[in-house]
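INTERNAL AUDIT FORM
Audit reference: QA-55
Scope: verify that the stored structure record matches its stored sequence.
Auditor: D.O.
Record contents follow.
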Amino acid sequence: MSYIFCEKEHDLLRKGVREFAEKEIKPIAPELDEKGEFSLELTKKMGELGLFGVFVPEEYGGQEMDYLSYVIAVEEIARVDGSQAATVAAHNSLGIGPLLQFGSEEQKEKYLPQLCTGEGLWGFGLTEPEAGSDSRASKTTAKLKDGKWSINGSKIFITNASSEITKGSCVQAVSGVDEKGRNEYSTIIVEQGTEGFDAQTMHNKLMWRASNTSELYFDNCVVPEENLLGKIGGAFGSYTHSGESGTMLFDTMLHVFKMDMVDLGPLSLKEAVLSEPDGTKACQDYGKAVGQKLS
């Protein structure tokens, strides 16, 4: 079957990814979901298939395909398992995307090749316990002194940031104030194993249980000044680009879930959230408690 807007190569890609998903992912997806287990083996196989770095130029180790190809790949993986689709979408849009769009030539050459093969994963540290994904409510700080950034704070629900093969994360932090006294946000590259940086895997999730989700902690975490991604105060550029790309892909995944009539059970999302009053009071989203917004 040929789809509107699709060329022959898109149809071939769809066929290949679908066959891979049916053969490699579908048989073990229920067990991985039940155990809440991230599969290193599947991740490496998806890398070998070329699902990472789909839109990255060949000179950096990518496939140099168009965004439609990327959407098709995620859609076909999501048909079988949302967890593996989340791994692919987050790694491409939130991990690789900012490095490709805003990284220096040195940063691209250093990080992208290993991220395009499945050898390594990368996270994007935006969401915080009290701020949610409201980028202007971030509390994590990064102070520049004597040619080094000192980072303090925490992040939560960060995809691909604590697996065995994670190489690092791009972290949004308050780096100062502008001429009007408003917070200035910058994005800093933090490699795995950096002193003062701790990435912990989260368990017992409601969905995408077989994807790697993390809490990140920064306690006087010091990295070189050249780990700045883009320019000082330019965090919203990297977040907006990666966020829009990621939103597009997660919308694709949700569309697939609706088409496949996924049964979320008798408890609605609102009822589920309001059944945990302590958690919904503590979790803030754009200045309001989640429970307050849903009640």
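Auditor finding: record pair retrieved intact. Residues 255-270 have pLDDT under 50 and may be disordered.
Action required: none
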